[in-house]
Description:
Elements: E1 2-6, H1 11-22, E2 26-31, H2 39-45, E3 55-59, H3 65-75, E4 79-82, H4 89-94, H5 96-115, E5 122-128, H6 152-171, E6 175-180, E7 183-184, H7 193-202, E8 207-210, E9 216-217, E10 220-221, H8 222-234, E11 239-244, E12 250-251, H9 252-263, E13 269-272, H10 287-293, H11 301-314, H12 316-320
Parallel strand pairs: 1-2, 1-4, 2-3, 4-5, 5-6, 6-11, 7-10, 8-13
Antiparallel strand pairs: 9-12
Helix pairs in contact: 1-8, 3-5, 5-6, 7-9, 9-11
Residues 7, 9-13, 30-34, 36, 42, 61-63, 83-87, 102, 106, 126, 128, 180, 182-183, 189 line the site of nicotinamide-adenine-dinucleotide.
Amino acid sequence: xxxxxxxxxxxxxxxxxxxxxxxxxxxxxxxxxxxxxxxxxxxxxxxxxxxxxxxxxxxxxxxxxxxxxxxxxxxxxxxxxxxxxxxxxxxxxxxxxxxxxxxxxxxxxxxxxxxxxxxxxxxxxxxxxxxxxxxxxxxxxxxxxxxxxxxxxxxxxxxxxxxxxxxxxxxxxxxxxxxxxxxxxxxxxxxxxxxxxxxxxxxxxxxxxxxxxxxxxxxxxxxxxxxxxxxxxxxxxxxxxxxxxxxxxxxxxxxxxxxxxxxxxxxxxxxxxxxxxxxxxxxxxxxxxxxxxxxxxxxxxxxxxxxxxxxxxxxxxxxxxxx
Length: 323
Ligand SMILES: NC(=O)c1ccc[n+]([C@@H]2O[C@H](COP(=O)([O-])OP(=O)(O)OC[C@H]3O[C@@H](n4cnc5c(N)ncnc54)[C@H](O)[C@@H]3O)[C@@H](O)[C@H]2O)c1
């Protein structure tokens, strides 16, 4: 199978690239090495893939519609896994236009390029649990109304879902939207809480705890998410939408404690007020993905954190020491 992965140098994208190559696929990755975090980190994510003759990296920006159309027309993929995005809720509040250009216009460029192919590819794209907004009722179901996003990032993901449906309706493009719930694990994005807190606790510095520590996130191990993406690629026939979560939310306080335990250190807490744009909880109902994709997240949180800490010691620590 020939698969185009956008955002292929990122945290989830590069993990997906490795999995697709291991499964025998031919993979082209698009990435612009956006400076949101160190491009050197993204290059090392692809170090192994780049040695594989079935892999090619195209450095381009999905805001450049001509370039996107050229890459898609040349490669003629069987499937497109569109993961490139400006990620992160808080920075989207400062840069709403940039988030819209990349996450919405960039997505439309890919949908348009896909529909120009004589044989329509399967189109799978990353949405987010943030589309559910701030709601007390849980778990979150795909049938819930999601008309009240509370950050430009969430609004951009909801807009991507709407455009994907529109292209399916107009052109018959098979599309699957995947609402990821807080991915974590090796190659973790450095702006995400687990990565930041691991570093702070390891260095004996206080962890800023926003709110009273009872906010909850449905942390999902990155290999489980990637397994869901691969299953969605295999089964993308019409218009689908799935939650890919763990369905087992963890409180902020418990997350900090788990990192401390994995590092063998006692966390110091710096209490702070809640942040605008943050939701109180995320909690996926995954019955639809289980029934239709055979999705079954399996890694317990403590085990996933231990694996992340191993990766952190082998990669981030050596990077900091300039080794
Ligand atoms: N990590 C999570 O917990 C999470 C949760 C929900 C949704 N998502 C979504 O999953 C996808 C992957 O997220 P991630 O955590 O791996 O983030 P990431 O930032 O590590 O990966 C995104 C990649 O997209 C690339 N990119 C950004 N702008 C681009 C542009 N204009 N042109 C080409 N490439 C561009 C970046 O360089 C990066 O390598 C994103 O769409 C994100 O919104 C992630």
